[in-house]
Every structure is written in C-alpha cells, then in structure tokens.
User: Fold this.
Amino acid sequence: MTAATRSLRRWGFVHKWTSLICTVFMLLLCITGLPLIFHEEIDDVLHSQVKAAEVAPDTPLADLDHLLANALANAPGQVPHFLVWDRDDPNAMFVSVGPSITSDPSKNLLIRMDAHTGAYLDAPDVTGRFTYIMFKLHVDMFAGLPGKLFLGLMGILFCVAIISGIVVYAPSMRKLSFGTYRAGRRRVVRWLDVHNLAGILLVAWTLVVGFTGVINTWADLVLKMWQYGQLAEMTAQYRDRSPPTRLTSVNAAVEVAARTVPGMTPGFVAFPGSIFSSKSHYAVFLRGNTPLTSRLLKPALIDAETGALTDSRDMPWYVSTLFVSQPLHFGDYGGMPLKILWAVLDVLTIIILVTGIYLWVRRRKAGVSVDRVIARSSGIESPALSS
Amino acid sequence: MPSRKSMHRTLSQIFIAPLLVAIVSTLGLVGALVGDGWWDTVSWVTLAVPVVLYALFIWGRKPN
Assistant:
C-alpha cells in the first residue's frame, strides 16, 4: 500500500464516521430549517395579526414613552426588557416584557405596537405555533444551551465530513468526467453519482451555512463575553452605583443615541438591568443601511438617570462575526429569490444525506458492492468506504 | 489498448470544475450582503449555478 493510498484510507475513515455521527441531526436541521426559511410567510398564512395603521410615508413616529406606557398598560405586572423596531414592517414595533428585569428573556412576551400611533396591536402567544416548534427543534431541540452546543458540535462534524468528502471525491472520479450520472445503471451506482455530484456542487454553500450555523450556537457565549468584556469596560465607572430609581425618557435616550451615531438608525433599545445593558443604562443599538451594515449593530449607552451619553463603540470582532454569520445562515438577505434558492439547496443537502446513508447501508449489507463500484471507476482500491 | 494509467484524470482535471462552481457560489453568498438591487441579482444568478448544473447533469442528458 502506498503512502497516498494510506492517506486516502484515513480520509475515507474520517468521512464515513463524521458523516454517520452527524447525519441524523443534520437531517433534523435540514428538515426543520426548510420551513424556517419562509417563517414570516408561513406565520402570515397561519395566523392573523392586527395590522398597523396605513400611513403616509413621512408620518412621524410615535413618542416612545407614550408607546411604552400603552404597552405596559396591556401587560400588568410585567417590566420592559427591550424595545424593538420591526425589520420587516416599519409600521410596527415590539415591546419585549418579562415578569422581572432578571427573568429569562427567551420566555418574554412580545407586545406588538403601532409605530406611528403608539397604539397596542396584539401580543400573541407564539409558543404553540408551527414555526416556533420548528425553530426550537432547529436551535436547541428544546434542550436549552446544552442542546444548542450539541447541535453546534454536530455542525462541526458536518463541516469535517464536507472537507473529507472533497478529498475522497478525487479517487471516485479518477475515470469519470465531471457531472457523470450513469442513469442506466443499478441504484447503488446512480446514487453514488448523485451523492458525488450534489456533494461537490454544494461544497461552498454547505460549508458556509454549516459553519455559520455552528457560530450561531455560540451566540449565548459571545453575548456573555461581550458583557464581561466591552460592556463592563464601557460602564466601569458605574460598577458600584445603585440602579436608577426613576428612569429618564426612553424617547430622549434614543434621540441622543441617534445624534451620537449619525447615519445609523435605531434597531432596538435594551432597558437598564436587561441582558444587553448595564443596570444603569439604556443601551440603544443602532444599525447601518446596507444588508451588511444593517446587521452590524453598534451600541450607544445612555445614562438612565441623567439621559446623557456615557459611551458608544463598535462591537468587538467576535460579536461582529456572530452578526455577519446570521444572514449567511438564514438566507434572508437577498429577497424571495434567494430564499427559494436557499430552500432548493437545502433539499439538495437532504439528498446528499439520504444517498450517503444508503451507500453506507449498502456496503454493510453487501460487503464490498459500493467499494467495487468506486474501485471500477477509480482504478484503485476505494478509500471512501473500505475503512 | 491504452494503459490504465493514461485513462486516469489528474487532480487538476478532477477539481477544476468544482473549484469554479465553489468560487462562483461564494461570490453569490457574499454579493447580496454587499448591497441591494444589482447585488441581489448577482447572488441569485451565481447561487443558481450549482442548482442548474445538478438538474442538467441528472435530468438533462439521455441515459447512457
């Protein structure tokens, strides 16, 4: 056995086992991810929501303190965590409330408000929705942070499987031209060709979506790093101060932030004591206006007792990486045609996974049959499945 | 009869087409991030390349 053959056998071993371990979870992720690409459209069809008032384009926005008071009047006993501008509907805003400022924000209630009139729209319980169940299965399988990190690990295996797959693609294609599909042959031959073709065509997309998915599983950790890093640094002088007894106007805070960072628009406000801010500040997160810069949020910290600016900095690289990896994973940054392409590429990935399992099962049942198929086309013993 | 060896394709022959497809689709992935309008169109066209190639190779040719 030559050194090259030994090396290929090792790559084959890596491809087989990384794939086998992650395949079931990757199937779950691909299948639940498919409806998530179209979650807004699906929610629109399945659930009616109160529409915000149709207004002329230059209608001024509602005073945020007034809007907030209206929201809280409809949520007795709740405190606000975040004020969020709706990316998809400029006529609506959300107020995210929880039973206390330290309660788990992932269990918050989202109150929809009219951005122009400041009127209450609705506050639907989304937890029974089809898209919510798909989302939870996709993100953490209802298992919280451990579930999330576990899926991240499966994502890493998936990326290793793709890279090792590129290596073992070579011996498989020694005697075949690119795109060969032997339509008249047995299923094991046809599905091997499908697996090779779809696998190699989708390398860039599966690697990008796979790896950005892995990065997304680290979001909670990245947030913690930012809290103990940059946020703590920016608010160091407030560390020993007691939280403000009365909060200043949130509307004024947003205006100060917008003046501080010209050219950017507010994306959301984190209230003092919530996970995205210090106990003494409104954190106003501003975003740019291109698809890329609209993801790169920049915080401006406003003292919630005096209403004055404390500090505003660009996010550190690890947070920016997380922000940029989000659209690349979701496919929501290029209109409906991009979403449809995302869905088609997702289905092709499912085909790669299923044909991969089939090829493995065939080999287990028939001993050497898949090896023979590959060996015949490569002229050398197969590394891919013989380990 | 040619020797077995001469029938083997080299690594660059095997990987040139996949490499081009990967470059083109990466351009598409990044394109729509950079801007709207034309950039979106660039990403639709380039990301459609692997899909169209798959369809052509699997269904577009007569069985041999």
Remarks:
- The helical segments of chain B are 4-7, 11-34, 38-59.
- Confidence is low (pLDDT under 50) at residues 1-6 of chain B.
